[in-house]
Amino acid sequence: MHARFWIAAAAIGSLTAGAAAQTQTIRYDFTTTPLAVFNFEFTADYLFPIEATEVTATRLHIEFQTNTFAGEYDAANMGLYFQAPVQDPSHPTGLATVPVLGSDLGFSGNGVFTADVDLPALNGMVIPALPGDTAFLYGITYFHGPHLTNPDDFTPMGGQHLNSYLEVDYIPAPATAAVPLVAFAALRRRRR
């Protein structure tokens, strides 16, 4: 009986270790077009795999330039809104969402601004796919930040992302949780 237990434990350990080795990363590059051409708001939808997955890390890298053909733009007003295909029952959409403002990152004034930020609120289990789904959408909205607190502020966006991107790490959804129970039940039956 002890030998069977150790064999089952070793098999479970190797299945769990194998899942950790399958981390994949998707990179979503931001538009480098000056944001003034989009006026007040612009949403870009990026494809995300439809597989049953868990997002384990989300990283934002921003390189934002405030001066473009449209003039100067205060970097504090840069706004981004992320909507991931990740479950969040506390949000009205049921999806994980995070706004990020230039002022949140300490940006202010004119020039080129850089930041690297972890966004753990966008991590978690990906929503279940419906029959016929071929991909999920990962939404990134660019907007004039003050509109978030003042809905009457429709000032056009400004500035330009030079080399900004979002990286999302994901793994297959944990399916190994049932394996220990199955192994335990099999060992339990043989004892009888």
Model description:
The protein is an alpha+beta fold and 192 residues long. The protein is 17% helix and 38% strand. The protein has two helices and ten strands. It has helices at residues 2-20, 178-191, and strands at 24-29, 41-48, 53-65, 78-87, 95-101, 112-118, 124-125, 136-144, 160-161, 165-172. Strands 1, 3, 6, 7, 9 and 10 form a six-stranded antiparallel sheet that branches. A four-stranded antiparallel sheet has the order 2-8-4-5, with no helix packed on it. Helix 1 packs antiparallel against helix 2. The longest helix is centred in the first third of the chain and has 19 residues, at 2-20.
Distance between the termini: 12 Å
| Rg (CA only) | 22 Å
What number of domains? 1
Shape estimate: elongated
The structural class is: alpha+beta
What's the average pLDDT? 83
Largest sheet: 6 strands, antiparallel
CATH class: Mainly Beta
| Helix content, binned percent | 10-25%
CATH topological fold name: Jelly Rolls
Number of strands: 10
Q: Order of SSEs, N→C?
A: HEEEEEEEEEEH
Number of helices: 2
Give the second-level CATH assignment, the architecture: Sandwich
- Low-confidence region ranges: 1-19, 176-192
Give the strand content.
Answer: 35-45%
